DNA sequence: AACCGACTCAACCGCCTGCCT
DNA sequence: TAGGCAGGCGGTTGAGTCGGT
């Protein structure tokens, strides 16, 4: 038995909103609010629209102080950095960019930002985003953590600024040895130390994480398929709770390899650029260090 | 001027979550 | 505790627009 529809689809209007509908909805919400019930709202104001449609129209278009288009370089940087860090969690990314909606950011990423990263301009931009990927088993505190990205641009204070800017005012900081923990209710627990982001792994975070895309760079091509959104990094999360060190490592590597395969397939299917591997793998201090520039660098660089 | 493919983005769809009873 | 429901979210679609031929 399927889920009951939220409204009678035959009785509601679909498609673009008219100025009259906009005016009615905007006027009502500004005067009375939504009444905490979007489903009944269209009946109250007398328009033949689905409640969800009203909500979307208000949030994405009618609500005050919205910005459309004209993304700045700083916003680009924040979007890219957060995308790399937390994946396609557009609502969280939008929450860090006042006046921007998740839909806008999603569209911007899918239609422009990915291509920008592929361009020459993106090459310079990418220098700021150059990342490494490391897995760390058990920290000195005994907390399971995974170090997801390591920015190599150590000379610039930009990242410090970024992470100070993007977290909610409600976040709390506390020092733990030489690192600063950041707790953001919207995100899994993560910590910041210079040029590194640590995600705490616990059952809640892990299970929550599985409902979202992995924090990998998504497809850099303009095709409709996506790569690397599910396999490897999710696997690293799902296995980090296990106590068997070797198994974790094997599963993690399997996932990483799956991601590479997906990426190279994507590249092979969409363009003729040279495919090359650049990367290193070292094992030291109980920390498996993968320089993933070979699957991050490649699609960001154009051979032109 | 007409055609066509690429691109943009508003809107929709359907799944998941959390709240309420 | 279970089921129903509304809200929230990310993925996808498709109409409109643009630019090249």
Briefly say what this structure is.
This protein has twelve helices and eight strands.
How would you describe the overall organization of this protein?
The chain has helices spanning 19-32, 41-45, 51-62, 73-86, 90-95, 102-118, 120-129, 158-166, 203-209, 232-239, 245-270, 293-300, and strands at 131-136, 145-151, 172-176, 179-183, 190-193, 196-200, 281-284, 287-290. The protein is α+β, with helices and mostly antiparallel strands and 304 residues long. The protein folds into 2 domains: 19-62; 121-300, no CATH class. It has an 8-stranded antiparallel β-sheet with strand order 3-4-5-6-2-1-8-7, with no helix packed on it. Helix 6 packs across helix 7 and helix 10 (232-239) packs antiparallel against helix 11 (245-270). 31% of the residues are buried. The structure holds a DNA duplex (21 and 21 nucleotides).
Write the layout of secondary structure elements.
Elements: H1 19-32, H2 41-45, H3 51-62, H4 73-86, H5 90-95, H6 102-118, H7 120-129, E1 131-136, E2 145-151, H8 158-166, E3 172-176, E4 179-183, E5 190-193, E6 196-200, H9 203-209, H10 232-239, H11 245-270, E7 281-284, E8 287-290, H12 293-300
Antiparallel strand pairs: 1-2, 1-8, 2-6, 3-4, 4-5, 5-6, 7-8
Helix pairs in contact: 6-7, 10-11
The structure holds a DNA duplex (21 and 21 nucleotides).
């Amino acid at each position: 038995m399927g889920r009951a529809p939220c409204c009678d689809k035959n009785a509601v209007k679909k498609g673009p909103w008219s100025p009259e509908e906009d005016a009615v909805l905007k006027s009502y919400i500004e005067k009375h609010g939504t009444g905490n019930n979007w489903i009944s709202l269209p009946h109250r104001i007398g328009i033949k629209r689905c409640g969800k449609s009203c909500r979307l129209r208000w949030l994405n278009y009618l609500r005050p102080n919205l910005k459309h288009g004209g993304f700045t370089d700083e916003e680009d940087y924040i979007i890219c950095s957060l995308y790399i860090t937390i994946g396609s969690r557009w609502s969280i990314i939008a929450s860090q960019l006042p006046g921007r909606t998740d839909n806008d950011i999603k569209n911007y990423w899918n239609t422009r930002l990915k291509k920008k990263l592929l361009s020459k301009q993106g090459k310079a931009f990418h220098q700021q985003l150059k990342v490494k990927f490391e897995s760390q088993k058990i920290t000195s505190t005994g907390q399971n953590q995974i170090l997801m990205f390591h920015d190599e641009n150590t000379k610039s204070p930009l990242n410090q600024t970024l992470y100070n800017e993007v977290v909610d005012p409600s976040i709390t900081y506390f020092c733990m040895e030489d690192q600063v923990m950041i707790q953001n209710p919207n995100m899994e627990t993560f910590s910041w130390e210079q040029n590194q982001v640590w995600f705490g792994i616990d059952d809640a975070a892990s299970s929550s994480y599985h409902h979202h895309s992995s924090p990998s760079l998504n497809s850099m091509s303009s095709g409709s398929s996506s790569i690397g959104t599910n396999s490897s990094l999710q696997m690293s999360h799902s296995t980090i709770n296990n106590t068997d060190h070797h198994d974790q490592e094997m599963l993690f590597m399997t996932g990483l390899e799956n991601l590479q395969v997906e990426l190279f397939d994507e590249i092979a299917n969409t363009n003729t650029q040279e495919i090359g591997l650049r990367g290193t793998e070292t094992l030291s201090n109980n920390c498996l260090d993968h320089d993933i520039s070979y699957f991050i660098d490649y699609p960001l660089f154009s051979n032109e």
